[in-house]
């Protein structure tokens, strides 16, 4: 019999699909455990996105762009790093990834995913952003969300972007949370 430990909480998450697009994930503190809220890792639609990788392969007939080797995406104070990133876009007349007018369907990242914005960080082995379903899934043997000394550990984080609802799963073990008492809002 398999036992799965799950914790649910509110998060703020934003995905910017300008240009090639980028993945972003956010975390929020448990409302029941602390009154402090995590603001969320986010991208802004009004700032340029810079993407670096060892290789870029554009496959317009397959409606995808594949970034491989030391992928780094930066927008403002937000950074995404991964070994690989594949951007899948919807095949529409005249839309290409190089023209910047492609409508992104989903983004997949893998090979040690690291997200950072200000004091917040998230790490995992792989991630998928589904623009159609407005979901973000970050998976790994150990998925870690942190802001300062507040740390959330599981193996899969599911975020519903339109509502900010999130669920951290432990996949057979237990979800681990460490909250810094100094992060509580002082009255």
TrEMBL record:
One of its GO terms (biological process) is lipopolysaccharide transport. The keyword Oxidoreductase does not apply. InterPro entries: LPS_export_LptA, OstA-like_N. It comes from the Bacteria. GO terms for cellular component: cell outer membrane; outer membrane-bounded periplasmic space. Keywords: Signal. The keyword Cytoplasm does not apply. Residues 1-31 form the signal peptide. One of its GO terms (molecular function) is glycolipid transfer activity. Residues 50-164 form the Organic solvent tolerance-like N-terminal domain. Pfam families: LptD_N (PF03968). PANTHER family: LIPOPOLYSACCHARIDE EXPORT SYSTEM PROTEIN LPTA (PTHR36504). This is Organic solvent tolerance-like N-terminal domain-containing protein. It comes from Sinorhizobium glycinis.
